[in-house]
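Quick one, tokens below:
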């Protein structure tokens, strides 16, 4: 969900939606987008470390067995499907 917000913000900047807003709103939006991306990375790493502590080697083995690439496995881990 956070990545949808970041993508929409970037597309809004590219489309010129923020053209006449000044520098303060653009700075705050850029800061917010960076924080969201950092939060997603931090939470995914925390969950990954948590899964490896309980089930060492589980993620890499199941990725190979299922034939998934890294982004598909990340999505499934994020959704707690596996």
């Amino acid at each position: 969900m956070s990545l949808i917000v970041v993508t929409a913000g970037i597309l809004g900047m590219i489309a010129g939606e923020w053209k006449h807003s000044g520098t303060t709103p653009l700075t705050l939006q850029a800061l917010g987008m960076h924080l969201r991306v950092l939060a997603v990375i931090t939470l995914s790493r925390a969950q990954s470390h948590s899964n490896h502590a309980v089930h060492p080697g589980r993620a890499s083995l199941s990725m190979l067995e299922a034939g998934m690439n890294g982004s598909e496995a990340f999505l499934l881990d994020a959704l707690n499907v596996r």
